[in-house]
Amino acid sequence: MISRVFILSTLLSSASAYSLAPVLQGLKAPSSAPLCHKFSARPGVRRGLTPVRAGDQPIPEGFREFQAREKSLDEWFAKLADSRSSIRQMASIKIAEMHDKEGEEQEKAVIQRLFSYLTLEDVHERRAAVQALGMIGQKVLPPLVDMLLATEDRVVRASCSKAIGAVALKNPELLPEFPQLALDGMKKAILDIPDPVTKIATISSLGQIGGGDVAHGYPGCERALDVLIEALEVSDDMGLAAAAVNAVATIGKTNEPFRAKALASLEKLKERAKDIDGFMFVEQMIEGQIEQLNGGGIVGEINKSRSTGQSSAQENLAKQVAAARSSGMIVDASAPPDEDWMSAM
């Protein structure tokens, strides 16, 4: 009869060093280095946990280059062209943070360089530059207005308008007293430049400035609403009117003190629309927005159902809202500066 001791010793002697490695490793003195867990790379399969030192772990792709040292401005500018949105966003933030660290000369050079990015063909680089300019703040408004009104390139004009909106979005404390220079420039762009891309981008930014960030305690700028109202009163451009109607209504919905003014403007345009050829669609939009501002309509019913707990009715009406939005009857004009609602920008 073969003894159990013999069998066990035979098995141990024939075992590979690899199979015993986890056991031997477990006998080592504990390390003070932090531990993490290494998982199998095979899809759908997870092996047993093997303790490894964190220092032995490979740095995930996309993070390696951010280790060890601070990047220079030139390196961050290069990152504005990165294919990853998170890297472009980080680059915008760092450029805005560093733009004036070395004095006035560097500040001017960085701002000028960002302005040059507004003329690039690559949409991601333009949008990243728009975000950086927005974070730099009020000082970029005068040159943005100059560029908006001087350039013949509609994409550059649209980028300038979006950058003005980004200044408002990134610096909401400016909203109540937003510089009149910027509002006057945007008004001129809407009324004097025939290009629809410029008009819609500018109206969108005015919607941001007028709408504010009420949820965080920042009311909108009433003078931005006034610019939109004036545009509605003098323009027979259906595209401009449709965009401005939604912007005015959005401002009225988000800023209670401005609601009466927004309603009066829409009522006035509704009467004028009856005498303008092709404004039937705009007239229908106005009626829907007036109903919502007065607390009725689909949105009003959803709010009522929320308060009464009628969840099934709410879901039903939510579907109607989605259908209305997809058909263009309900449009939120206050789109973020880098949203994909206009791919040419």
UniProtKB/TrEMBL annotation:
<feature type="signal peptide">
    <location>
        <begin position="1"/>
        <end position="17"/>
    </location>
</feature>
<dbReference type="InterPro" id="IPR016024">
    <property type="entry name" value="ARM-type_fold"/>
</dbReference>
<protein>
    <submittedName>
        <fullName>Uncharacterized protein</fullName>
    </submittedName>
</protein>
<dbReference type="InterPro" id="IPR004155">
    <property type="entry name" value="PBS_lyase_HEAT"/>
</dbReference>
<dbReference type="Pfam" id="PF13646">
    <property type="entry name" value="HEAT_2"/>
</dbReference>
<keyword id="KW-0732">Signal</keyword>
<dbReference type="InterPro" id="IPR011989">
    <property type="entry name" value="ARM-like"/>
</dbReference>
<dbReference type="GO" id="GO:0016491">
    <property type="term" value="F:oxidoreductase activity"/>
</dbReference>
